[in-house]
Amino acid sequence: MKAAVLTGLEEIEIIDKPDPVLKDENDVLMKVNAVGVCGSDIHYYKTGRIGDQIIHYPFQIGHEFVATVTEIGKNITRIKPGDVVAVDPAIYCGECDQCLQDRKHTCRKLVFLGNPDEHEGCLAEYLVLPEICCFPMGENADLDCGVLVEPLSIGNYAASFIKNLDVKTVGILGAGPIGLSVLLNLREYDVDRVYMTDKLDYRVENAKTSGALWAGNPDKTDVAVEIQSKEPLLLDAVFECCGQQEAINQAMQILKPGGHLILVGIPEVDVIQFNIHDMRRKEITFHNVRRQNECMDSTMNFISKNKDVTALITHKYKMDDIVNAFELVSSYGDGVIKAVIEFD
């Protein structure tokens, strides 16, 4: 089979590899249909690492994908060959204290696709995973919807942090795929006004058309002043979705006392800072978002009612053109939001 592997910084090669085979009675062999290019993939592409997770070349990345089942193990009961499945790229043990406390996303033995020293990614024609990772999409499955289930599930999980809070005003800092996924999932909650920021003008405009009441570029306007002029009492909650120190500083400025800061973005640096005086005086509550926690089914249900989410996909490439796809996303070229690699 063909597979795409990182061979160095900003270097990808298409190589031939043996077809994978079932090794366990709970395994599923699937043919990959489409793969989304994620911001974390770009981290690995550009820097070779995320924190202490360091690439050892060559390495096969990728974790957002939809696939068609071709063969199943003897113990498989939920799916059958021919099923189109959305895939949760997190493989949990189901036995540790975290799993037993319904925290499978922080499983002590968690293995994640496309992470160094964990599991090879999905940028290949075929892949084998446990049945627990596979979620059937039913007849007439839309592949665009399928490839978006994983990133939208992160937005789903992040948005759920305000479920039991009295939140009417929200900020989302970063209008890329994850920020927009949060925005779209906020449709499920009684939020009155959403304010968004991004340093790319086309994403600012996209945020406005996607449902934000106001959106602005922090390089061109003082977003804290602008938002405070519209919300004198400041915001109930802020989702930081770009992993930037500057955005974290802005979040502290625009949060009201007793507000909630939900950290979703992945910083490229190892250490970020918070103004302890703002934190203390405002008594800010922090929530860290670790991917998603058992949100695949609810996300698929959300997508079934909101087909317009496929507008997140702005560019499609074939596997042979994967380098151009990664270059486009890493350079924020041509108005890209989500680029997808399609397999024949």
Q: Would you summarize the structure shown here?
A:
This protein is an alpha/beta fold. The protein contains 10 helices and 19 strands.
What does this structure look like?
The protein has 344 residues and is an alpha/beta fold. It has two domains: 177 residues, Quinone Oxidoreductase, Chain A, domain 1; 134 residues, Rossmann fold, CATH 3.40.50.720. The protein contains ten helices and 19 strands. Strands 3, 6, 7, 10, 11, 18 and 19 form a seven-stranded mixed sheet that branches. Strands 14-13-12-15-16-17 form a six-stranded parallel sheet, sandwiched between helices. β12, α4 and β13 form a beta-alpha-beta unit. α3 crosses α4. The chain starts with a strand and ends with a strand. The model has no long low-confidence stretch (mean pLDDT 97).
